[in-house]
Amino acid sequence: MARFIDSPKNRAAGTRIGVLLVNLGTPDAPTAAAVKPYLRQFLSDRRVVELPALLWQPILRGIILLTRPAKSARKYAAVWSKDGSPLRVWTEKQAKLVKGYLGERHAGQVVVAYAMRYGQPSIAQAVAALREHGSDRLLLLPLYPQYSASTTATACDAVFAELARYRDQPALRTVRDFHDHPGYIEALAQRIRQHWMVEGRGDHLVMSFHGIPRFAVDKGDPYQRQCQRTAQLLAQALGLADDRYTVAFQSRFGRAEWLKPYTAETLAGLGRKGVRNVDVVCPGFVSDCLETLEEIALEGKQTFLQAGGSTLRYIPALNDDNRWIHALTALIERELQGWLTADERPAAPSEMPARPAS
Ligand SMILES: C=CC1=C(C)c2cc3[nH]c(cc4nc(cc5[nH]c(cc1n2)c(C)c5CCC(=O)O)C(CCC(=O)O)=C4C)c(C)c3C=C
Ligand SMILES: [Fe+2]
Ligand SMILES: [Fe+2]
């Protein structure tokens, strides 16, 4: 096998910018057979489970991959849509919409692709497609508002590793995080206001972020600090007093201590305290997925009701929200500014553009 991926001799020299949106990944089907290889790849990532491979791999390949795929598959089945896994469906839609906006402003200069860190479409496929389209510059945007080594860094690692296989590498920029980006915060705030207008407003708002192990933060991961900052900015935008909302962390995995308070315990505590109506938003997920639709909207609701609560309303993720897509486009445009040649620069950005056909 050739040492490097070479460019075909007759390929035109690249002069385009490739934008690569990367999300976490999801199984191809809601079955144990499809969940197993996805979990094997995900949980073998040393950025995700920081145990020595000699210790962890026998546990993973033994008890975890024997039991968890079937359990997880049942959960996936409860939220699977006719078009597939919600995470993949929304990520694909976001990429399409961003492509529409950027395509209009940059007349073919910018190409957009999306990939999953685990599963399909793979980072290798997306990088190859962008290179085929002549991208000599690559902007990598992991779709995680808050930086964490277990998400953002591993997405970057995987793209860097893929590029290491190329003879003719593109230039590279990465977006590290956007936890305090005004467009992202305002899109979230507006999503919540709209939900309150249509569904009514609960007595308390829980902002639930995915957890990570406590030790990762102690060793310097900025994730918790960024989650707290997002929550503070969101509360400010909504004019929420401190006693009207709680920040919590969901999805604990394994035996180690994770960031606290845990979302399930928070919901149970609110129910026991006599809070009747709770709204839950998950600002760390820009796309609805298993963690929001199953763990919060289904399981979290049960937990809250069993503890004495009356209603739990889950506020959907940003998904294809117009303000969010505009914020995402603005985030990309900001990075492109430093990169575009004078010839490639479009006219001054307009106000929120009309939504292109998807
Ligand atoms: C938003 C950020 C995320 C962080 C941080 C994160 C850390 C993290 N996750 C696990 C273990 C699992 N996560 C699983 C699903 C999952 N996780 C995220 C996001 C973050 N994870 C998403 C978007 C999803 C959903 C994918 C989907 O298909 O919808 C799963 C798989 C499902 C299950 O079996 O529970 C596991 C396992 C660890 C260990 C970790 C931090 C170190
Ligand atoms: Fe996770
Ligand atoms: Fe989970």
Radius of gyration: 21 Å
Bound molecules: ligand L6N33NVT, fe (ii) ion
State the secondary-structure class.
Answer: alpha/beta
| SSE run | EHHHEHEHEHEHHEHEHEH
Shape: globular
Averaging pLDDT over every residue, what do you get?
A: 94
Query: What's the CATH architecture of the domain at 182-315?
Result: 3-Layer(aba) Sandwich
CATH class category label of the domain at 182-315? Alpha Beta
Into which percentage range does the β-strand content fall?
15-25%
What is the rounded distance between the termini? 40 Å
Lateral strand order in the biggest sheet: 2-1-3-4
Number of helices: 11
**Which ranges are low-confidence, i.e. pLDDT below 50, for 5 or more consecutive residues?**
none
Catalytic activity: Fe-coproporphyrin III + 2 H(+) = coproporphyrin III + Fe(2+); heme b + 2 H(+) = protoporphyrin IX + Fe(2+)
EC number: 4.98.1.1
Binding site for Fe(2+): 210, 291
Pathway: Porphyrin-containing compound metabolism; protoheme biosynthesis; protoheme from protoporphyrin-IX: step 1/1
Explain what you see.
- By secondary structure, the chain is α/β, with parallel strands linked by helices.
- It has a domain of 134 residues: Rossmann fold.
- Helices cover 47% and strands 15% of the residues.
- A 4-stranded parallel sheet has the order 2-1-3-4, with helices on both faces. It has a 4-stranded parallel sheet with strand order 6-5-7-8, with helices on both faces.
- Helix 3 packs across helix 11.
- The longest helix is centred in the first third of the chain and has 27 residues.
- The mean pLDDT is 94.
- One fe (ii) ion binds next to helix 10.
- It is found in: Cytoplasm.
- Its main location: cytoplasm.
- It catalyses: Fe-coproporphyrin III + 2 H(+) = coproporphyrin III + Fe(2+); heme b + 2 H(+) = protoporphyrin IX + Fe(2+).
- This is Ferrochelatase.
